[in-house]
Structure formats: C-alpha cells, structure tokens
Amino acid sequence: MSSKSKLIINCGATHVSASEFGVSAGRLVLESFQVQELKYDYSNQDEWLAELAATLKMMRVSGKATVIAPSMLLLTKTIKIPHVEEARRAEVIEFEAEKNIPYPIGEVSWDYEVISDDGVETEIFLTSMKSSAADEFCAALSRAGIIPESIEASSILDYNAWKYCGLENDVIIMNVGSRFTNLMIAREDGVFVRSIPVGGNSLTQAVADSLGRDFSTAEELKRGFFANAALSSSAGAEHFTNGANSVMRRIGVEIKRSIVNYRRTSRVAAPSKIYLCGRGSLIPGFAEFLAEDQKMSVEYFDALSNVSVSPRVNQQLLSDCAPQVSEIIGEAARMVMPGLMSVNLLPKHIVEETAFAKTRPLMIIGAAVLFAATLPPMFLFSKSVAQEEEAAKKFQSMMLPIEERAAEFKKNGETASSLETKINGLEGLAKSKSNWINLFIDIEKRLMEQKDVWLDNMRVHRTSKNGVQEYKLELTGRLLIRDFNPENPQEYDTKKAIDRITKLLNSFVSSEFLKSFENVRTDPSNPRILKFDFTLVVNPDKPI
Fold first, then answer.
1. Contact between 266 and 303 (Cβ < 8 Å)
2. CB 331 within 8 A of CB 18
C-alpha cells in the first residue's frame, strides 16, 4: 500500500484525465486512471471551459487536486539575469518579468523556476497566465467539484518525467499536443524550453482547407483515416498525407531553429536524440521523418517505465494513452523527488482563501474554549461590581484636582517638545550642509580611483519610514571599456563590464557616507561605453 496519495487533473485542449498516484518503497504507484475526450469545436477555444467542467462532472472526480494547465493558456519564456545574492533574486526577477510579460504585472498570475546558475548569470524559466483566465479556469473546476491546490504549467513537466525515468543527457523531449508542441532540450544542469504553435489541430486545419469542409468534420475524417491503415491507398488519401507531411516539415524546421537558439545561448553540445510523446506524435511516419530530417535517433518516451500500476487501473486504456501520460508522471514525480521543477499559477487570492480555510476550524474551537473559560470569572466578577462602582465614585471625586494639574503638565510638555524639534532641525541642517560637501569630495575621490567613469546625473530622494528620514542618491553615468576591440566585437566579454560595475559599487558602499546600493541597471548596447544607473542608500548617521 502507498503511504500517501495525490490526485492530478491534466486539462488538455482535446481531452482531460484524472490520475491518482501513491508512493510505495520510493516508487510511484498509479492507483487510478481515467480519461475522457472533450466534445466541442476544437477551433473555438471559447467553448473549452464549459466542456471541461461538464466532462469532469460526468467523470465524478472531486476533491483537492493538482491541476495541469494546457499550453494554450500559458505564456512561457526563458530569460537570463545577472547573478545576485539569494535575498535580492526575487526582486530582480520581478523587474525582468515586468519587461518580458506583455501585460501589466498586476493582471497576470505568474511564477518562475531557476534553471541554472553559473555564478555569473542565472537562467530562469518564467511562465504566466492572465488573471482573468486563471479565475475562470478555477471557477470551471469548482463547478465540477475540484478544489485546485496548485495550477502547474504543462510546458515544464516533461523535464521532471525525464529526470524521474533516469534518461540520458542532451536529448530533445518533444510533446506534440493538439494546439502546441512543447519542446525541451534536457541536460543535467538545466533545460531549454520552447512552446511551438503547431500540433494536431494544424493537421486538421490543413485537411479542412484541402477538402473544403468545416473543422469539426475534418477532425472526424482525420481520426478515421489515420486509425484505418487500409485507407492510406484509397482515393483522396493525398489530402491527409499532404497535410501530415506539411505539419511534420513545420515541426522539423522549428526543431532546427530551437537547436540553433539553444547552442547560441548555452554554448554546449547539440542534442543527440529525440524522445517523442503526446497524441500528436502518433502521425504515421513521424518518427522516421524526424530521424531522417534531424540526423539523430528518435524514440517514443516511455514515461511509465519506472511506475508501478495498480491492478484496478484499466490496462488497455492506459496502454492506449501511454503517449499522453508524461506530463502527469512529471507532476507526480515530485512526490518522490521534491527538488524537481514546479511553477504554481494559482491566483494569490485563492491561495490566501485556502490558507484561511485551513485555520478556520482551529479558530472556532479556540473561540469556544476561550468563551467557556471566561464563564466562572464573569460570575464572580458580577458580585463585586456594585461594591466597586461605589468605590469608583469616591475615587473620581478625589481625582478631579489631580486631572486638572495633569492637563497643565501635558500642555507644557507639548510646548517643550515642539521647541526641542525645532532645535534638532537646526542642528540637523548644520550637519547635513557639512555632510553634503564631504560626500561630494568622497564621491569625486572614488570616481578618480576607478578611472574612466563619468556621472551624467544625480538626484536625491528623501523619504520618511517609521519616523526616520531615509536618503537615497540616484546616479546615472557611463563607463569606458578600454580593452574592447571594435575590429572583433565577438571577443566582447560581458564579465569584464560586470566586474567594473561591481568594483565601482563596492567602492561607493565602502564610504562612511553610504550604506548600500540597489536597483542596478546597465545598457550594454554600446560595447565601448557601458551606460549604467543605480541607487545609493545614504548612511542615516550621515544625513544630507
């Protein structure tokens, strides 16, 4: 028997599956599995949510679950940021997310996962979903009786399955779905991820255009044709084979483009093998085409190779759906390998509501215990109330002269406090004037020590936090990179520019007038002149 269980709902564009996993002896156990086709016009995405909710309700699946969102709802991107300490990483990533997500950051539900960090740059997998779409998605799941504990991005889960199955490094894992093909190049220290807008629906649309039929009819004809090998030589077969060849060629071109981008950014060896998964990968001749087109071996990804299957699972159904289970295996693998990748797109307000709901029973019990504990003291207290009221009246008559004297003392104290504030302000003004002069002398000295640095602009920001004045200097300037060779710009070494900026910042914060720096930005568009801007936090003991 497994020690724990987890319900995973995989919401695809054309089907939905519900799987329950357990763990036994450190190995995944598939305890139940069911899948249903979604019956709607696949060319109209607006119908998807309603059909998804209706199908889940029909499947009688309910309760808390981890939900996998399809690529059609997601925007994914791999970005690189300068290496920073762990405490500042989230701040830098949020800044980069605002630049790379084509919507206001407040209108999306987003998350990230660190792919790799070589000490100079950190590679980040960034994914997002519009908040309105995430809320509608959760509402549809709720109508079916599903309580989502997290919404995982399908784009990254095949990497977890690759890790769990222990496959070799430097391979392509390609999951061909109905609307998108998720392509990733997996290596031991990271992964390259890309979503390609080509899939099974592309073949259906090609057939529809060739036959002059609507999308739904073309989808039905396509499934019938490829399910019956005898039809491959029938009249009209070219409509289907030509469409299949067109889709395979498009995917082949995108694979080559992805490999070029991967090698340009990662500077590592090219992948040597392709693993296929997803129902769209079952197009007859697809594996053979890719092997010839890409000049590498191609296999189908057996994601169930390291999974025990309960006798209660329909073995024929599982065998038929084997190409489609890699994503759910990748999510379930986190039960036995906690360090695997995960991005949770569950809206924050739902996370907060769920956390509060978990504490609500304890709060009710605590309130009841507290109320019961107050009953005996309240009974005893009521007896002495009358006596205390009489004593209070006598005491109040004695307090009147004292209260008048206290009011006079308070007024005098306020006057004294006001005068003290004015005196302190004059003293601070005198100190800040001296500090200004010394600060400029100190900054000039450090710029001369660093050499080849110009300041274009400096602004002062004064704020008050918890009654304490805080001063910040915003500096904008330029830095000359002397060893840049314009005859051979490929030799440009970004590490040297980073080292120069880091050395300049460390020089500033070693000053007695400055405490730290923040919001560092650089513009390397001109390799010889590196533009920069950053903020210096002034030592509060040396106000300006």
1. no
2. no
pTM for this predicted structure: 0.65
DSSP class of residue 270 equals: P
**Residue 244, pLDDT above cutoff 50:** yes
Q: Is there a contact between 299 and 271 (Cβ–Cβ < 8 Å)?
A: no
The alpha carbon of 142 is separated from its chain's Cα centroid by a whole number of angstroms, namely: 23
pLDDT at 431: 60
Residue 166 Rama label (left phi>0; alpha psi -120 to 50; beta): left
Q: What is the pLDDT of residue 233?
A: 62
Helix (H) or strand (E) holding 158: helix 154-165
CA distance 170 to 183: 13
Angle at CA 359, nearest 5°, toward 355 and 362? Answer: 170
- At 178, give phi and psi (nearest 5°): -80, -40
347: region left, alpha or beta (phi > 0 left; psi from -120 to 50 alpha): beta
How far are the Cα atoms of 202, 207, 221, 278 from residue 247, in angstroms, in the given order? Answer: 7, 11, 17, 15
Separation of alpha carbons 471 and 537, rounded Å: 6
CA distance 308 to 333: 12
Q: Tell me the C-alpha distance between 277 and 12, whole Å.
A: 14
Residue 188's nearest CA partner among 165, 170, 164 is 170
CA dihedral 523, 525, 530, 531 (to 10 degrees): -40
- The alpha carbon dihedral of 192, 198, 203, 204 has a sign of positive
CA distance 257 to 246: 17
In 3D, which of 441, 313, 331 has the Cα closest to residue 68? 331
* Neighbour count for residue 292 (Cβ, 10 Å): 12
Cα 166 to its chain centre, rounded Å, is 25
What DSSP character marks residue 48? H
Rounded Cα gap, residues 14 and 178, in angstroms: 7
C-alpha 528/C-alpha 115 separation (Å) is: 31
Q: How far apart are CA 271 and CA 291, in angstroms?
A: 13
Would you say 346 and 150 are in contact if contact means Cβ atoms under 8 Å apart?
A: yes
CA-wise closest residue to 513 among 420, 462, 437: 437
Q: If you average pLDDT over every residue of the chain, what do you get?
A: 86
